[in-house]
Amino acid sequence: MTLIIGLITASSFAQEGKNTFKGYLYNDEYEVYLRINFYDQNIKIPGQELYGDIPGYLGRKNHSFCWVMVSAEVESEQKATMTMVNDFGSEDLTASLTYISDSTYVFRQEEGSTVKIPKNGKWQKLPKKLTFKRK
């Protein structure tokens, strides 16, 4: 009986770890979100399916503009890295996503271009470090 309970518990932890870098994460301050699945890498951008299956993207609420994740690698249970391009293909960067707690993540722009999003007809630069919450 103890062995069965141990196997079930280990299986639960493995399943939970497999979901760390999968889902919908949101930042209220800048109204941006991450839709990600770094494990299966099968995310499609609505209205932009020509990109095919990707690890994920950064989008803005009520806007079709996005930053496409062209590659992503889970480095540990707490950290993943990704390469991103804007949907025009004119800018790119590497970034990391760190899991802090059950619903909090920190996104860091590491190298390359600065993420800019459209806001009120202008481009708004996002800070190099942003906190996201799981929704």
**Count of extended strands:** 10
Order the strands across the largest sheet as they lie in space: 1-2-3-4-5-6-7-10
Judging from the principal axes of the Cα atoms, what is the shape?
Answer: globular
Radius of gyration: 16 Å
Q: Percent of residues in helical segments?
A: 10-25%
Along the chain, the helix and strand elements come as: HEEEEEEEEEE
Helix run count: 1
Main sheet summary: 8 strands, antiparallel, barrel
Report the span from N to C terminus: 36 Å
Strand content: over 45%
Oligomer: single chain
Poorly predicted parts? 1-16
The class by helix and strand makeup works out as: mainly beta
Q: What's the pLDDT, averaged over the residues?
A: 88
Could you please describe the fold and organization of this structure?
- The protein is mainly β and 135 residues long.
- 13% of the residues lie in helices and 48% in strands.
- It has one helix at residues 2-18, and strands spanning 22-27, 32-37, 56-60, 66-74, 79-86, 92-99, 104-112, 116-119, 122-125, 129-134.
- The strands form two sheets. An eight-stranded antiparallel β-barrel has the order 1-2-3-4-5-6-7-10. A two-stranded antiparallel ribbon has the order 8-9.
- The longest helix has 17 residues, at 2-18.
- The relative contact order is 0.17.
- Residues 1-16 have low confidence and may be disordered.
